[in-house]
């Protein structure tokens, strides 16, 4: 009897719009929630993941770990800043953002009660103070007013940093993700996108996210991280090296960059360089 490997399931679930519906005869007991101990130099973080979920919130992704390591090395991106996490899952990057001195952290995931309650548990377990934390159910591409209102009632306030880990395998959601990012990001802010090509044969479709991000001069895209880890799912098909590699990209507003042509060379001068 043939079985589905994890990257096959990713493809099937992306195509299925009724993610939360299963035939009665197919239902099986939900696995128990699991804890993941994330070790860092300063302190360990206990992350509870739901037992199983069609939106993959039950997995602590390698990309999330690498993103946290990056944030720990670059605390200046967080300290005193407004942070938004999309598709948070266990919310590990958001927790680290709060620990590292963020002004406000808005944590979002699909508006499913189990997902939101799981995030709340992780926040109360790992943080002694929650005053700078807001947890919201949010569907990518929808009205961003609730997200922006969480940091200020002023329409001029936007997020300094938006963080995303292992979301771009949702190919049908690229436009929705970018729409939310464009509306929420401060003109001097940046987006961190960390991911792995879990389905190597669809790597080119993963990268379409960045092609779309650069259309119409929306964002400037820069690769900042490439790190090899253990594969998330050992029995999956495709190159193990590809499935083990985590990439990190930084996106910034292109309208803050002027291109200057001098003797055949193109220079990028940010507005802040002029001040």
Q: How many structural domains can be distinguished in the coordinates?
A: 1
The CATH architecture can be named as 3-Layer(aba) Sandwich
Number of H- or I-type helical stretches = 9
Instruction: Output the helix-strand order.
Output: HEEHEHEHEHEHEHEHEEEH
Structural class: alpha/beta
Look at the structure and name the CATH superfamily: Vaccinia Virus protein VP39
Q: Kindly provide the name of the CATH class.
A: Alpha Beta
Q: What percent of residues adopt helix (DSSP H or I)?
A: 25-40%
Please state roughly what percent of the residues sit in beta strands, choosing from under 5%, 5-15%, 15-25%, 25-35%, 35-45% or over 45%: 25-35%
List how many beta strands DSSP finds. 11
CATH topology: Rossmann fold
Strand order of the largest sheet: 5-4-3-6-7-9-8
Task: Put the structure in a nutshell.
This protein has 275 residues and is α/β, with parallel strands linked by helices. It has helices at residues 6-15, 62-73, 92-99, 113-126, 145-149, 174-184, 203-214, 240-244, 271-274; strands at 34-38, 45-49, 82-85, 104-109, 133-137, 159-165, 185-195, 219-228, 245-253, 257-262, 265-270.
Give a written overview of the molecule.
This protein is an alpha/beta fold. The protein has a single domain, classed as Vaccinia Virus protein VP39 (Rossmann fold, 3-Layer(aba) Sandwich), CATH 3.40.50.150. Helices cover 29% and strands 27% of the residues. It is built from nine helices and eleven strands. The strands form three sheets. Strands 5-4-3-6-7-9-8 form a seven-stranded mixed β-sheet, sandwiched between helices. Strands 1-2 form a two-stranded antiparallel ribbon. Strand 6, helix 6 and strand 7 form a beta-alpha-beta unit. The protein starts with 5 loop residues before the first helix and ends with a helix. Keywords: Cytoplasm, Methyltransferase, S-adenosyl-L-methionine, Transferase.
